[in-house]
From TrEMBL:
PANTHER family found in the cross-reference section: SLL0781 PROTEIN
Organism: Streptantibioticus ferralitis
InterPro entries, sorted: DUF1348, NTF2-like_dom_sf
Name the record gives this protein: Nuclear transport factor 2 family protein
Length: 139
């Protein structure tokens, strides 16, 4: 029995928007185990300059990420969709242990299996230093 994660491909505009919102909501929990369940057991990622394979590596990556990126808050926006693929743009804000705030911008390309689990995630991300009063995403 395979896990399923609706909505399932092929995506419509409505189902793609729901998938993007579900991803945003999950990542904003900052719970690596919960987030990892949206990906296939052998999911392939490229995140900046890192290549990550499988749920165990996803959990390790997210655990480390959210230990460094404090008070992380994310917003995602549907950019395009077709069949079993979705492209999003996103931004998130966070601060480091010294209190320096950042806004990180990026794009992701996602590919899903027939059960709605993400099997590929390719992310390009850039960070910009901001001051606390420049924040746009509330905690």
């Amino acid at each position: 029995m395979h896990d399923t994660r609706p909505p399932l491909p092929p995506f419509t505009e409505e189902s793609a928007r729901l998938k993007v919102q579900a991803a945003e909501d999950a990542w904003n929990t900052r719970d690596p185990e919960k987030v990892s369940l949206a990906y296939t057991e052998d999911s392939e990622w490229r995140n900046r300059d890192l290549f990550i394979n499988g749920r165990a590596e996803i959990v390790a990556f997210l655990t480390d990420k959210w230990a460094r990126e404090l008070d992380y808050r994310l917003r995602k926006e549907l950019w395009a969709y077709t069949g079993n693929r979705i492209a999003v743009r996103f931004e998130y804000e966070w601060h480091d242990a010294q209190g320096q705030w950042f806004r990180s911008y990026g794009n992701e390309n996602w590919e899903f299996d027939d059960n709605g689990l993400m099997r590929k995630r390719y992310a390009s991300i850039n960070d910009v230093r901001i001051t606390a009063d420049q924040r746009r995403i509330a905690l």
